[in-house]
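In the lab's daily routine, each protein ends up as an entry in a very long ledger. A line of letters takes care of the sequence, but it says nothing directly about the fold. The fold becomes a row of whole numbers, each drawn from a learned catalogue of backbone shapes. The protein below has been through that process, and both of its lines are reproduced in full:
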Amino acid sequence: MTDTTQQDDWEVILDILAQRPGRFIYTQIALCYPTADDSTTTRDGIITTLKSGLERLSASFPWVAGQVIQDMTGVPEGSTGVFKIKPYKPTPLLFIKNLAADDPSFPTYAEMKEAGFPMRMFKEEVVCPRGTLKEGFSDPSLAGVDPALLIQVNIVQGGLILSVCAEHHVVDATGHGIIMDLLDKACHATPFTPDELSAVNLDRTNIIPLLPMDKFDPSVLRPKPPITLSPAPSPPASASPPTPNPSLTWHHLHFPPTSLDSLKSLASTNLPATTPYITTDDALTAFIFQRILASRLHRLPPDTPTTLIRAVNVRPYFPVIPALYPGMIINSTLTTFPLADGAAAPLSALAAPLREAVQKETSTLARDTSTFATLLSISKDKTLGGAASFDADKNVMLSSWTKMGCYELDFALGLGKPEAVRRPSFESPFGGVVYFLPMDGEGGIDVVAAVRGDEGEVLRGDEEVKRLAREVV
């Protein structure tokens, strides 16, 4: 079903990387604000501010109020069609849910804060109008439609949870942050700059440079062999193996700034000449990957190839793409180690190849992204790569949102800046999925990982993890 209340006939053909059917998911971000005044007048003022902001946002960027469609009109047999944004509503839908009045079981804001805002308290079917997965939860009003952007205000006793949900064909994590920044400006009635108006409305059809056929070599996309460490370290001594438990759970850790500094220092020790430096994100990525590998030693052979699939914003690799461009401009680096090697190696031995895979002097991301875009452009069936080929039993898929400035967003609601920013929980279809949440105002980072129950038990007893992080339960 397609809503026709808005009769405009515009359309936005999405980026070539967004033409994969597997992107039909939603990314959700929940921002938590305390409220000193729970009166109806205050709530009405908040809703009015958000509605006005959404109107200003839509006036300058109409596509945010649109819907994603898979256009199969006139496509040849075997084609996956063309993904587009078409008109839907005048502004993105704003849902209001009064959990304080309608759900006595939902925790108060004070209870959430005392517990550290654990992910388990942010169930997507409660705080969001649409689930992560297409086949998952959806508000009945959204049946048969995939809006580009959805907002839900959740009123809790003593606070407010603002959920911003974006369709993943439309924006990647960087783009999600850009749209939230623009909504914040709109709520403040701050005019958009010419650069914002240009970049956010930029034509998406040829945004990534394609390769001429005489330079197109899809073989460069083949996975690289595992990195062997010489001499190979001995696997760490293990305690009694946990009881097998394949059921998935979200493991939530908080790393304070002091721990992040320690990790960066440790990962920067004895770097090869090809790696001039390590970032905090590199160090934390290497650490989380290593501890997940260690949690699997009890059930997988030590020589099992294990791959870290790290999502990377590739805007900086293409001068023609503005930093403010919001579309689907991510690729992934794949770094593989034998299981036991990765679990026992010095942290710098893992962090160095992660850095080399993304630093411009040594990275092949620009070439690989243009190659993959070219491959998609000549393929009728664009069901290539992605989660369908992800072996969750062995590998890890990691997305870092640490650079999103969510802790600076107040949306002119009169509530100050958010005290916590969380990714609502969902029933992940596979383990090994990791999110780094936006860096908080003190420089700390929360990490959430979908892991097997037995892996979570190992992580809970992991002395390295306990030394550096606090589990948020």
Observations:
- Residues 40-60 form the longest helix (21 residues).
